[in-house]
């Protein structure tokens, strides 16, 4: 069993009020090193069997249609417990 992670973030040109709220709170808590915050979502999907290019293509469709709003968000799919470069190469992405 493998874990596929989908990270979803607002596109750079989209305002991120939650990230700005966190950024505003940090100095009040004594954290002065952070200069910007963007808040996103992380989804961890358990997948039975081998991670193939076909499985990654299915996960990509899930990410695009359900887990993200492609108009205002970007997403990345990556595999934990496997070499990401190996899987990306198998998927024809490398």
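Q: What amino acid sequence fits the structure above?
A:
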């Amino acid at each position: 069993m493998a874990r596929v992670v989908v990270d979803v973030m607002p596109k750079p040109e989209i305002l991120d009020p939650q990230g700005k709220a966190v950024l505003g709170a940090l100095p009040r808590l004594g954290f002065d090193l952070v200069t910007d915050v963007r808040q996103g979502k992380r989804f961890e999907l358990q997948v039975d069997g081998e991670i193939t290019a076909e499985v990654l293509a299915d996960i990509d469709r899930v990410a695009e249609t359900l887990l993200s709003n492609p108009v205002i968000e970007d997403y990345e799919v990556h595999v934990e417990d496997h070499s990401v470069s190996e899987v990306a190469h198998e998927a024809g992405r490398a």
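Q: And what stands out in the fold?
A: The longest strand covers residues 2-10.
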